[in-house]
Amino acid sequence: MLTINKLIPRGQGLAAALLKRAPEVVLDWDTRQKSRFDARDSQERVLAVFLPRGSTVRGGDVLVAEDGSFLRVVAAEQALLEVRACAEHGSPFDLMRAAYHLGNRHVQLELQKDRLLLEPDHVLADMLRQMHLEVAEVKAAFEPEAGAYGGEGQGHQHGHGHAHAAPKPIGIKIAAAPHVHGPGCKH
């Protein structure tokens, strides 16, 4: 059994050649949101994963085993509901409204520019259809938003700067240290 106790988000800082050679471990969302689980990798090795409590594993992350070997995480395809605005008379606002109502119900939700993805629930599907949205069953990888305080959201990568300095009192000039994007940045 191979013990794993470290995660490198999106394999940041690792050479592409290393990642290409690394075995894969395919995990569904239910497993990836746990900090302790067992799995098998693409080489049929049994894995015992012990990450810090509260850890979430995302597709594209890299797990590091105690022996120093790497494993690429692949988000498994799973049954999901795909929600789209009505092609005939809908608008992007309809999806925003649906996301609001689903958020009020604390539903884990993957947001995309033209669709929402959520785990199957016939009650929610009926509610969304009553809102004149198109709801279909699909198989896809699921990467729901982490939440406002949950660290990185699904695919949150960008190049624009952020103002992280504390508010400055009037009349006093304080030079803020520049923000550097890198491992542990939490962006």
Overview of this structure, please?
By secondary structure, the chain is α+β, with helices and mostly antiparallel strands. It has two domains: 2-75, Urease metallochaperone UreE, N-terminal domain (HSP40/DNAj peptide-binding domain), CATH 2.60.260.20; 77-141, UreE, C-terminal domain (Alpha-Beta Plaits). The protein contains four helices and ten strands. The chain has helices at residues 16-21, 29-32, 92-104, 122-130, and strands at residues 2-8, 24-27, 36-40, 46-50, 62-65, 70-75, 77-85, 109-111, 116-118, 133-141. It has a six-stranded mixed sheet with strand order 2-6-5-1-4-3. Strands 8-9-7-10 form a four-stranded antiparallel sheet, with helices on one face. Strand 8 (109-111) and strand 9 form a beta hairpin. The longest helix has 13 residues, at 92-104. The two termini are 33 Å apart. Residues 153-160 have low confidence and may be disordered.
What is the correct CATH architecture of the largest domain?
Sandwich
Order of strands, main sheet, comes to 2-6-5-1-4-3
Q: Helices and strands: which structural class?
A: alpha+beta
- Overall average residue pLDDT: 86
Shape: elongated
Give the arrangement of secondary structure elements.
Layout: E1 2-8, H1 16-21, E2 24-27, H2 29-32, E3 36-40, E4 46-50, E5 62-65, E6 70-75, E7 77-85, H3 92-104, E8 109-111, E9 116-118, H4 122-130, E10 133-141
Parallel strand pairs: 1-4, 2-6
Antiparallel strand pairs: 1-5, 3-4, 5-6, 7-9, 7-10, 8-9
